[in-house]
Amino acid sequence: MYHPTGRVLTILELLQSRPGVSGPYLAARLETDVRTVRRYVSKLQDVGIPVESNPGRYGGYRLRPGYKLPPLIFDENEAAAIVLGLLGSTWLEVAQSPAAVEGALSKITRVLTEAARQHVLAASSVAILPSAGDETRPDASLILLLSDSVQRGRCARLEYRSEIGDHTRRVVEPYGLVGRRGKWYLVAFCRLRKDYRTFRLDRIRKATPLEEGFVRKGDFDFRAYAIEYLENRSAKWRVKVVFEAPLAKLRERMPSSLGTFTQSAHGVRLEWPVDDLDYGARYLVSCGIPFVVESPPELRAALRRLGDEAHRIASRE
Asked: Tell me: the pLDDT tens digits for 24-72?
């Protein structure tokens, strides 16, 4: 439920972020009626904030062009959310400028209350969120460019390198961006292949926004498409193992997002899509829970290689 003061501040935030907002839209966001919205707008005008109104069926509200509000004060929880997001930019596997992150942290701390500032500085000095060390991270500007094309419903031209090294130029209709296991993907309709495709952002050599628009297909769910593709079709192997332990113990050792866990007569079966069986073998062994391999047989070979490597290391003087 909204408090009246919270509703007034919400209107102010919406007016700052949009060139114009209609009365019915504000009423829907605030869970109230248009008449009450007019009363809240009057409160803003009474304290000197120049909110202009355009009467009529398609009218609305806006801040007077050129008017700039002073910085808003973040409370402690809001500041913590922003700071942790900035500190975690490397963890998101995005090539973000360290200078940009440092500058943003500096500006945020200047507008905080003294108590909030001390807590935020403490978090930023002791929190370390390292990346996975992957050098194939997309530039943050590419994510912003593609996000803008998605929001505006505009096509984009890509110069793309496939997994096998083929270079193509194609026009796509972008639907959304998805992050998965340290990689970023664009989900789009590809006019070259005449079908929906996912494009890894680190393989996009160049992206050019176009003014040409496209009509979104309302029955296409890019989130469901991405999940189905990334979980199933994109993986080279589907590992199936049965752990000799209860599900509660597995939850303590590995994330639920790793794969599909199902109870079986002999334990808990894990179905896990992976691209690298050697990595899969190391991960499974590191969990420290006995398991039986169901498939693929190549995983048994990867486990033997891991055992041989450990034996060689242990045998060295």
From this structure: 888 888 778 888 888 888 888 887 888 888 776 656 888 887 776 665 5
Structural domain boundaries in the chain? 4-63, 76-126, 140-226, 237-315
* Look-up of token digits 């209860």: 246
140-226: in CATH 2.60.40.10: no
Q: Select from 1.25.10, 3.30.70, 1.10.287, 1.10.357 the CATH code of 237-315.
A: 3.30.70
Sign for the CA dihedral angle at 43, 48, 50, 53 comes to positive
CA pseudo-torsion sign 77, 83, 88, 94: positive
Q: Averaged over 284-294, what is the pLDDT?
A: 91
Higher pLDDT, 264 or 121: 264
Max Cα separation, the chain?
A: 87
Which of 158, 269, 256, 253 has the alpha carbon at shortest distance from 208? 158
Both tokens of 97, joined, read 């400028």
| 4-63, CATH topology level | Arc Repressor Mutant, subunit A (1.10.10)
Residue 127 has pLDDT above 60, yes or no: no
* Inter-residue contact 137 to 97 (CB < 8 Å): no
* Nearest 10 degrees: Cα torsion 206, 236, 312, 133: 30
Question: Quick one: average pLDDT of 187-204?
Answer: 91
- Mean pLDDT taken over the chain: 79
